[in-house]
């Protein structure tokens, strides 16, 4: 676990994601040191019953360090509830979404506006009490810009009916994909919200239920801002 975490830290470092890489370096070094200490205890006949995977889970459950989820190609069971529900506590009232591709509706394989709508539905259902959602994305580069804007405005109006304000901003230089909650959790998905594969048809299993839809391969990194430092 320690070696894998340090490897991930190097990947993040090379991608200039210094804030996250620092957390991974910290966790990886700590885990490696724990292995050394554990080995010494075993040599002395001491107890070391917990596996290092369990130790990592215990660290993470305490809001420390970082958690990583690897979604394999064609894997199922990774709907938005699976990824986000445990971080949506009742104190969550504000959400930030940064994703440059919340814009496509004309390509069935990249219906990111619909994915964003599904994510908003998750926030509306609770148990969190979200009042404000901030979306930072980029304009559609083709003829779909007007459709993108009208779709976002429709989502904005619909959320208003539930007492939720959607603030929309556009940037031509945005590249990272991340979602942040005001309880401190930050989730980075390699493919953003659009990690699902195109359904076989409108009446095929998985079209409506994302838990049943195959996924593209991607990596999900979860951090808590309490344990990250601005570089």
TrEMBL record:
Residues 77-224 form the MITD1 C-terminal phospholipase D-like domain. This is MITD1 protein. One of its GO terms (cellular component) is midbody. Pfam families: MIT_C. GO terms for biological process: midbody abscission. The gene is Mitd1.
């Amino acid at each position: 676990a320690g070696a894998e975490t340090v490897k991930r830290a190097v990947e993040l470092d090379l991608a200039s994601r210094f804030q996250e890489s620092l957390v991974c370096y910290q966790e990886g070094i700590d885990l490696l040191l724990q292995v050394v200490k554990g080995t010494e205890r075993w040599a002395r006949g001491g107890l070391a019953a917990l596996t290092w995977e369990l130790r990592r889970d215990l660290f993470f459950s305490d809001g420390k360090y970082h958690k990583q989820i690897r979604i394999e190609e064609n894997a199922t069971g990774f709907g938005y509830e699976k990824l986000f529900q445990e971080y949506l506590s009742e104190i969550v009232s504000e959400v930030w979404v940064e994703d440059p591709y919340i814009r496509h509706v004309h390509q069935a394989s990249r219906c990111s506006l619909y994915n964003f709508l599904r994510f908003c539905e998750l926030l509306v259902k609770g148990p969190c009490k979200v009042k404000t959602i901030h979306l930072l994305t980029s304009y559609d580069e083709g003829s779909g810009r007007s459709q993108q804007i009208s779709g976002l405005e429709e989502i904005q109006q619909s959320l208003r009916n539930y007492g939720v304000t959607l603030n929309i901003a556009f940037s031509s230089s945005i590249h990272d994909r991340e979602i942040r909650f005001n309880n401190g959790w930050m989730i980075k998905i390699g493919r953003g919200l659009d990690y699902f594969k195109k359904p076989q048809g409108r009446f095929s299993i998985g079209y409506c239920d994302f838990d049943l839809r195959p996924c593209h391969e991607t990596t999900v990194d979860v951090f808590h801002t309490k344990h990250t430092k601005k570089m």
